[in-house]
TrEMBL record:
One Pfam family it belongs to: LpxI_N
Gene3D superfamilies tied to this protein: 3.40.140.80, 3.40.50.20
Name of the protein in question: UDP-2,3-diacylglucosamine pyrophosphatase
Organism: Oceanibaculum indicum P24
Boundaries of every LpxI C-terminal domain copy: 151-280
PANTHER family documented for this protein: BLL4848 PROTEIN, LPXI FAMILY PROTEIN
Domain LpxI N-terminal residue range list: 16-146
Length: 288
């Protein structure tokens, strides 16, 4: 196996924030916030996943997921020690990853079983390894105001008694599955589980359950944290596309984990839910 590539001398450590940017709009919103605050940042854009517009006019480097050494060298040259993970990331197979020497070394630290584990076990291992490399991993919602869901309703629509019962059923299902590190979302209608979110993601789940919807009352999408979830990298997330997909599937509304889920572009989510007739509610997974 070849040795590591020669690294460049690291810059002095600064308060600059490194953004590891996946898909979706959260990375762009984070960039806009940091610009408004005149806070220095540097983006590591994940190849094939980050939106090109996120990188326009920004200091950045695009890397494939397996090019860990290249990414860490760039962050050190920029004097970055604070990292924020933002945006969706499609989990690759080991063959797709094509790990470089540094990635191979880190995979060895995590152990091969990490690739057979659920997303949260893998992400927790990633955080542990990065901390061992001298980086601090922070939550995106600590920097981006309004991202974290609160308790109660957004918008003007409300859940009826049937929807509340479906929310409680969804919470029970996710509580049971959570310890297995499987899924953050479930769709329930009339007490029946129409679908559980797995590796396909929320939008694909909603597309899948649309034809399964039964005659009668609407149904709900419930998204909750898993027990022990590493909240610095991955929290349940909804946005405008989620509301639109839920409406297309014929659902009555969406319930998300208050204090444990992200709402991307809150104002647009409220406007879309109002227009399409869906409720959006922040709930406590422990209180339902």
């Amino acid at each position: 196996m070849p040795g590591p590539a020669t690294t460049h001398e690291a810059a002095p450590v600064t308060d600059k924030i490194g953004i590891v940017a996946g898909g979706g709009t959260v990375p762009g919103q984070l960039v806009a916030t940091l610009r408004d605050r005149s806070h220095p940042y540097f983006i590591i854009g994940l190849e094939g996943q980050v939106q090109p517009e996120t990188l326009d006019g920004t200091p950045h480097l695009v890397v494939r997921l397996g090019a860990v050494g290249t990414a860490l060298d760039a962050l050190r040259r920029e004097g970055v020690r604070r990292l924020v993970f933002a945006g969706s990331v499609r989990r690759p197979s080991l063959a797709e990853l094509r790990p470089d020497w540094t990635a191979t070394r880190l995979i060895a630290k995590m152990g091969p079983k990490m690739f057979l584990a659920g997303d949260d076990a893998l992400l927790s291992a990633v955080v542990k390894v990065l901390e061992g490399e001298g980086f601090t991993v922070e939550r995106a919602d600590r920097l981006l105001d309004g991202l974290l869901a609160g308790a109660g309703y957004l918008g003007r629509h409300r859940a009826d008694a049937a929807a509340e019962a479906d929310i409680a059923r969804g919470v029970a299902i996710l509580r049971a599955l959570g310890p297995l590190d499987v899924g953050q979302g479930v769709v329930v209608q009339q007490g029946l589980c129409l679908g559980i979110e797995a590796i396909e993601g929320t939008d694909a789940l909603l597309a899948r359950v649309g034809p399964l919807r039964r005659d009668g009352g609407g149904g709900v999408l419930v998204k909750l944290r898993k027990p022990g979830q590493n909240e610095r990298i991955d929290l349940p997330t909804i946005g405008v596309a989620t509301v639109e997909a839920a409406a297309k599937a014929g659902l009555a509304g969406i319930a998300v984990d208050a204090g444990g889920a992200w709402i991307v572009d809150r104002a647009a989510v409220i406007e879309t839910a109002n227009r399409l007739g869906l409720f959006v509610k922040g709930i406590s997974g422990d209180a339902v």
